[in-house]
Amino acid sequence: SILLFVIMCLLGLDFLVLLNYLSALFLHELAHLFVAIKRGYKLKRFHFDIFGMSVELNEDICDKDSFTINIAGPAFNLLICMFCMSMYWLVPASYDYLNVFCLANFVLAIFNLLPIYPLDGGKIFRSLIHSDKVYRRIDLFLRIGLSISFLILFIISINSHAVNYFYIIMVIFFLTSICRQAP
What we know:
Elements: H1 2-11, H2 15-38, E1 43-49, E2 52-57, H3 63-90, H4 95-112, H5 120-128, H6 132-159, H7 165-177
Antiparallel strand pairs: 1-2
């Protein structure tokens, strides 16, 4: 949940990380919007809630456009990451300035490619699997499996005396995402 991430950054007084991740998220959604507009869709609203940012279109995305529109966000984040890495190579001093932004884009792209709804990966996965029943079962299995995995990582971090709250945030995200099952 973006809300938990914002709270964690504010409590840690890590405003640079927060700004970089929110910027990466905004650019991610703009990429979805750009491709949707190119495909003939119109923007209904740009939405920000506790789960993150999202673009809401005036109509449902048809199956043939779903893959392209949903892959646009993670692909653009990876392009930004590659641009940042090329800047490191061309201008080594840029590393200090672009490091967090590059990481934010990379993490956002990889996280969004997880094949669970409402993430882009879940929507992409849904466009590739044509059976609703199979898709829903796999989606629920992945959500529960990821929740258990991050809970185990959190418990391990407690036992190692280096508590990592990111893991518990991921558990909360995946458990609350079960309430937002795929359509």
